[in-house]
Amino acid sequence: VVVFLLIRTEGFRGTVDTKIRDALMDSIETLAIGFVCTALLLVLLRQIDLATSINEAVGKIIFESVPFSLGVAVANSFLSGDRERGNNAPQSASPQSKTAAINATLTDVGATAIGALFIAFTIAPTQEVPMLASAMTPPWLLATIAVSLLISYGIVFVAGLTNQANRYQQKGLFHRPIDETLVAYIISLTAGLLMLWFFHQLSFEDPWTVWLSHTIVLGLPATIGGAAGRIVV
User: Fold this and answer.
1) Which of 91, 116, 153, 166 could bridge across to 188 with cysteines, CB 3.0–4.6 Å?
2) pTM recorded for the entire structure
């Protein structure tokens, strides 16, 4: 019902007059996107596997899909910009001085760090990270790294969100999309690691494998926060 009301008032179609039938179709699409995203992340985080019963898997997906579905419903109205205008934006800009490039880089670094810390600060004190990390084997940790990088790249450079065209024109020291995504991921991992240490989830007596697994797990949401931070600026 909440998803339907959000779509009915904001709409995915860029018009104020959204028909009830169109809103219902968009609501179904929104819920489907939420279910798929939830299922994929629950599998990635080892909360659903081949040993999980159908009832348990469906229950987890339904309950955990609530924030995903609400996020899909509000993303268009709060984050989407004028895609057509963004796609037609000039891809070249006048050369910037070295000082301007450094300032742009520092802005990106700061925005990434703030976004990552904002997310990591709320998750690090909980027991979710140790619980999830304990179920992670090396292949799953590698998969988490890959998914984190793909999500970060997709949010900033693919999804068509506000300010995306300007990201391609960014002339900082790490202005290429791949470079920026990698550097931003390292910053997000660092922010997550610091939060885990700050909240005593990690200590110097722990083996490096524990530090690595915990940091990679928290790095997934922290990377999403860092990407959101760069979009805002």
Assistant:
1) 116
2) 0.68
